[in-house]
Design a protein that fits this description.
This protein has 146 residues and is an alpha+beta fold. The protein has 3 helices and 7 strands. It has one domain: START domain (Alpha-D-Glucose-1,6-Bisphosphate, Chain A, domain 4, 2-Layer Sandwich). The chain has a 7-stranded antiparallel sheet. It holds the Pfam family Polyketide_cyc2. InterPro entries: Polyketide_cyclase/dehydratase, START-like_dom_sf. This is MxaD family protein.
Length: 146
């Protein structure tokens, strides 16, 4: 078992405030991400409350539970950890942060995750996490493309 790190960046077509309004919604994955089918916040808590847990499924029935660790509208930052997943990961922590690209009124996004994974599952798991982050950024960016 080794520590794995995934790091994905993208320049998104939308201005930072509008892009952030989409990505900051901890319960909003099915609204913009093509991999995810359903999501709800457990115990009726608000989706922006630190400590809330999102419970969601992908279109193939894969189930995940993630807990919100940090959310900053000032810093355009969201951090969370996986509590349960169909992926073979342990101690998974992730953070997404946005930066303004002032010359073009676009947004620079970075999304990273660190987790433990067995060697046999390492390559496939890193690819799945990477693709998940890339698809999220691409789907949000596509909303602003002209």
């Amino acid at each position: 078992m080794k520590l794995a790190r995934v790091y994905v960046t993208a320049v998104l077509e939308g201005p930072i405030d509008q892009t952030w309004q989409i990505l900051r919604d901890f319960n909003g994955l099915p609204d913009y991400h093509p991999l995810f089918a359903t999501s709800h916040i457990e115990d009726g808590k608000p989706a922006d409350q630190i400590g809330c847990v999102r419970n969601f499924k992908d279109h193939h029935g894969g189930h995940l539970r993630e807990q919100l660790l940090a959310l900053s509208d000032r810093d355009y930052l969201c951090s969370y950890q996986i509590l349960e997943a169909h992926l073979p990961v342990r101690n998974y922590v992730s953070q997404m942060k946005l930066w303004p690209v002032t010359e073009s009124n676009r947004t620079f996004g970075e999304w990273w995750a660190e987790f433990e994974v067995d060697d046999a599952d390492r390559e496939d798991t890193i690819e799945k996490v990477t693709d998940t982050f890339r698809l999220a950024f691409q789907s949000v960016s596509d909303r602003f493309a002209t």
